[in-house]
Design goal:
This protein starts with 5 loop residues before the first helix and ends in an 8-residue tail after the last helix. It contains 15 helices and no strands.
């Protein structure tokens, strides 16, 4: 079930809203949880058990990390070791599930290609939203691990540990942001899980935001996407350069309106039910550098990788070379996160490369070639958009050979009949 479908708009959404506002406060979370599980199971009922395994596992791991962090007496001397072991098991558990369903087939195909082997490949269907709810569950347990240093004066379980399994299950599986994000951090909505206020103003704002997102998705993204799909599906050997540019620009617009549209609908639905989700897009196509672009594009993902990968790797605290390596690792992970194909991986490295180039130029205080402020701003924007558009070609075509052929048409490095 998707937000733009008739079944969601005409039946599921009204039923969820009416029931939610009728029920007493103590039943609202349970109602939302049941509705979210039904929403997920609608299209692929067998995969709801994978999400339940993620929920149960992360709930148990969160409680385990908390209890290990509170070890006293003779066990306190080994507390740090046990904590690290518990969080290691948590990461392996979450990434293991994600790897099997999203990357196992790709890994086997890669091994077959490199080693000239013929290993049998199981047909594994990718569960919708697995990357989003896996990252949310894993980040919750990591936050429990990190917050252990705060004093626990009362002796009670602190608020960064969720004792109620229904509340944690709702956080991980909440249907507004389950399919396409944004990635919600537990600390951002922990208060709302137990004490949220409903108002006519928030409801109206949520409906308005949902309608805007629906228009982006159903009217703009779908219409522009038809043009992009037809062009990318054409024969590149007879395609004209102008047509190739039209296809690339259409896909650039499509992916923004599609993804930001879903985020708008998720934020709107969240407000309707009393939750405030973070903004996921902030006019990314006005950026004047790739660094700025990633501050504005898919903000929830970029901040997730910053906090849970880039900073733990050392960030920019261990010298320039280490910083560049950390950036490449982060953008490699960003590409792989989007899909199991070489095109996604190269797309991530493509952006990482320009992030490093920009950082080097800033570090060396290389003066801008253009002195006029307005012209310089325009040139910076053109440079950024060229990098982004070429990157989207890698992202769209997935296969490197097809991407290079398409880029060749865009750059007019081939001959055609048109």
């Amino acid at each position: 079930m998707v937000f733009s479908s008739n079944i969601f708009i005409c039946f599921f959404m009204p039923i969820m809203i009416i029931g939610y506002y009728i029920l007493p406060k103590k039943l609202k979370n349970l109602y939302l949880l049941i509705g979210s599980l039904f929403f997920y199971a609608w299209g692929e009922p067998e995969y709801v058990f994978i999400m339940l395994a993620s929920i149960i596992g992360n709930y148990c791991f969160g409680m385990l990390v908390h209890h290990v962090s509170r070890m006293k007496n003779g066990l306190s001397s080994k507390r740090d070791l046990y904590r690290k072991l518990a969080i290691l098991i948590t990461v392996i558990y979450n990434l293991g599930i994600l790897f099997y369903f999203k990357y196992f087939m790709f890994a086997v195909e890669t091994v077959n290609g490199i080693a000239h082997m013929n290993l049998e490949i199981l047909e594994i269907v990718l569960p919708i939203g697995i990357s989003f709810y896996t990252f949310q569950g894993m980040s919750y347990v990591i936050d429990v691990y990190r917050e252990e240093s705060k004093p626990d004066v009362s002796g009670q379980v602190p608020d960064y540990v969720q004792k109620n399994p229904i509340n944690l299950a709702l956080y991980i599986s909440m249907f507004p942001q389950l399919i396409a994000g944004p990635i919600v951090r537990y600390k951002d909505i922990k208060k709302s899980l137990t004490d949220r206020k409903l108002s006519a103003q928030a409801f109206a704002s949520g409906i308005e935001r949902f309608i805007i997102g629906l228009a982006k998705k159903a009217i703009l993204a779908n219409s522009i996407g038809e043009v992009a799909d037809k062009i990318f599906a054409s024969d590149y050997s007879i395609m004209g350069t102008s047509v190739a540019w039209v296809g690339a620009i259409c896909y650039t617009l499509q992916i923004y309106y599609d993804f930001s549209g879903y985020s708008d609908m998720a934020i709107g639905l969240g407000r309707i039910f009393g939750f405030e989700f973070m903004e996921n897009f902030n006019y990314p196509y006005i950026s004047k550098s790739i660094t700025e672009f990633w501050r504005r594009w898919h903000i929830s993902l970029s901040t997730w990788f910053r906090d849970y990968l880039y900073i733990p790797l050392g960030g920019n605290r261990k010298g320039n070379k280490r910083t560049y390596i950390n950036l490449l690792i982060v953008f490699l992970a960003t590409g792989i996160w989007h899909g199991a194909a070489w095109g996604f991986l190269i797309w991530g490295l493509w952006h990482g490369l320009f992030m490093i180039i920009e950082r080097i130029l800033r570090a060396k205080n290389v003066p801008h070639l253009i002195k006029n402020t307005k012209i310089r701003s325009i040139c910076d924007w053109v440079y950024t958009m060229l990098v982004v558009v070429f990157g989207w070609v890698l992202f769209k075509t997935v296969l490197l050979e097809d991407a290079l052929s398409y880029l060749g048409v865009m750059l007019h490095t081939h001959t055609s009949d048109y």
